[in-house]
Design the sequence.
């Protein structure tokens, strides 16, 4: 069984309302095991025998049926999430001010150069992530990362919690 972490895009933070009990039920109905959600912003950890592409497609289809509109899903295995945490290029920065934008594919080579509204933010490309440290806080930032528009962001505290949850399944 593979341990997966699914990160839903724009759920309960200005987007689609999706109670975590509904998300848990959707995952159980898809045949996923040991389903656990983390905070009410579209984070779910589970096990499945299926491959990543199948899991992602199944979850997206069930979310579309439930919500009546597409909900983007970014999927990582437990090992991949642990690697994201270890690869954080800003380890001394406040974890609640340091984010990874999770993408389904590698960020374009010009992802950082094409960013707009940069103030005091620091950015680095990852394997399938863009890391951003917001010294003044994400809420005050004017940063626009076109490459991150199809992704979803989580701060280092959340990433660490999800990695820990997945490791304990």
Sequence:
């Amino acid at each position: 069984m593979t341990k997966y972490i699914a990160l839903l895009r724009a759920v309960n933070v200005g987007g689609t309302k999706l109670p975590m009990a509904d998300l848990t039920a959707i995952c159980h109905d898809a045949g996923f095991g040991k389903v656990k959600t983390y905070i009410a912003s579209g984070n779910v950890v589970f096990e499945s025998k299926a491959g990543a592409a199948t899991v992602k497609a199944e979850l997206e289809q069930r979310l579309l049926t439930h919500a009546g509109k597409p909900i983007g899903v970014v999927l990582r295995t437990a090992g991949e999430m642990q690697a994201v945490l270890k690869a954080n290029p800003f380890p001394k920065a406040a974890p609640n001010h340091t984010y990874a934008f999770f993408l389904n594919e590698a960020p374009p080579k010009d992802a950082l150069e094409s960013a707009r509204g940069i103030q005091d933010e620091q950015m680095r490309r990852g394997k399938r992530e863009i890391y951003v440290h917001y010294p003044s806080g994400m809420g005050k930032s004017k940063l626009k990362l076109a490459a991150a528009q199809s992704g979803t962001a989580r701060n280092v505290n959340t990433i660490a919690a999800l990695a820990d949850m997945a490791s304990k399944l």
